[in-house]
Design a protein that fits this description.
3 helices; 0% strand; mainly alpha; 120 residues
């Protein structure tokens, strides 16, 4: 008798696949350095008005940049015949949702600090 609500466990592969090394170019490292430098420059500008927000944004932003950079490298690992312009486009496309989200969060936090200072 077969129970449709309690199926038998699926077979699990005992040997995981071999991990592959990610290849990156000097342009990829330049892209990473440029994005991090832009983030830290923005954090330094915000530091004068609110150091805590600048630090949190720099820390969170650097983690987001690294995660997006490695995600883009993983994508490009499967498509090695991409031009330099296409590689930069993939890096930026991986970052756009994060940049918008972090930008909105930082703006809301700064706005909340300004409103609380204005009300007190």
């Amino acid at each position: 008798m077969y129970d449709i609500y309690n199926p038998p466990p699926a077979p699990v592969a005992w040997n995981p696949p071999q991990s592959e090394r990610l290849f990156y170019t000097r342009g990829d490292l330049t892209c990473l350095a440029t994005l991090c430098a832009t983030l830290f420059a923005a954090s330094i500008l915000v530091w004068r008005s609110e150091p805590t927000v600048a630090f949190i944004t720099a820390l969170g932003g650097s983690l987001v940049i690294l995660e997006s950079w490695f995600t883009a490298l993983g994508f490009m690992h499967r498509r090695r015949s991409l031009s330099v312009k296409a590689r930069w486009t993939i890096f930026v496309a991986a970052l756009v949702p994060w940049l918008v989200g972090l930008g909105i969060a930082a703006t809301l936090m700064l706005g909340l600090f300004y409103v609380s200072d204005w009300l007190s």
